Amino acid sequence: MKFIDEATITVQSGNGGRGCVSFRRERFIPKGGPNGGDGGNGGNVILKASPRKRTLYQFRFKRLFRAENGRGGEGSQRTGRNGGDIVLEIPPGTLVSDAETGELLRDFTVVGETFVIASGGRGGLGNVRFKSSTNRTPRYAQPGEPGQTRTLKMELKLLADVGLMGFPNAGKSTLISVISSARPKIADYPFTTLTPNLGVVQTDWGEPFAVADIPGLIEGAHTGAGLGIQFLRHIERTRVLVHLIDATEIDPDAPLSRYKAINTELSRYSEKLAEKSQLVVLNKMDLPGADVAAELFQMAAGNMEFMTISAATGQGIQALKARIVQLLDQLNEE
Per 3-state DSSP, what percentage of the chain is helix, strand, and coil (rounded to 5)? Predict the structure, then answer.
């Protein structure tokens, strides 16, 4: 299934049913009073954050959703049936805004959360409602109120505690497959990851936490280069960023160049994202030359905290998980 994280749809709530003009007609009662019932209310359009949905794929082809209209009122003061609601399930983390004005209508961050995005029209009143001492036989009733039509823009931002970022082929997919049950595509070439991956990490000493892995970033990503910029929104909600660097790709003449390049792209995309708590991790320490590169990085980094791991062999993985849990606990206490 293709990963769809943006969609624009149109929703229409149901129109209210028309009130009824009717008079009581029975044997021996030739001139009975009015008895027209009210029309039913139109159905609502409801959005619901469902754990069964992971993407906005369902809106890729169908773009118009209508709730049912209310039925008209009937004689003998019978009220018309209300129109049925339509419930659209969306993944948690979806932001819904008005496509015409840009106004944010709802940010669905809680599983099971519901919101009436378009209210159905009210049913019209039947003629029995207009009977009075001066008008004993009203021959009119109200039409039902029209429903609402709205064009909605939906944008999915994955809900995760930790975001993995770095250049292509830094080992992000391997790492998330080692620390969680996620099984992304893994290969030894850049841009193996084409869509975000989400995994849950279980530990023996702390609460589980969710990790999001996005496609690799490259220089110029903030202007649209590469793939990662399309998915940076998915780590905007994270609390900790794990900046993964391929130790074998560290430039001996400028050990911090790759680190600085990614942070430059983050700051140009969003200052708020660039200010998030960041844990630098040197990966692929099992390969030749990685130890020397790590020493050069340490000399250039000064007091910067960083860790060394090998996602392929498992070296340093437990220490990394423990440090992430520690950082999350510290943020919880703040």
Answer: 20, 25, 50
Same domain, 214 and 328: yes
Instruction: Give the residue from 132, 156, 180 where a domain finishes.
Output: 156
Phi and psi at 201, nearest 5°, equal -100, 125
pLDDT in tens, 207-263: 678 888 876 565 554 444 444 456 677 777 788 899 999 999 999 999 999 899 888
The answer to whether the annotation marks 157 as part of a ligand binding site is no
Question: Of 156, 185, 220, which residue sits at a domain end?
Answer: 156
Establish whether 104 is an annotated binding residue: no
Residues 170 and 293 in one domain: yes
**Of the candidates 216, 219, 218, 172, which has an alpha carbon nearest to the alpha carbon of residue 198?**
172
**pTM of the complete model:** 0.66
Q: Is 173 annotated as a binding-site member?
A: yes
Residue 168 in marked binding region: yes
167 annotated as a binding-site residue = yes
14 known ligand binder: no
Structural domains of the chain, count: 2
Confidence band of 193 (pLDDT split at 50, 70, 90) = very low
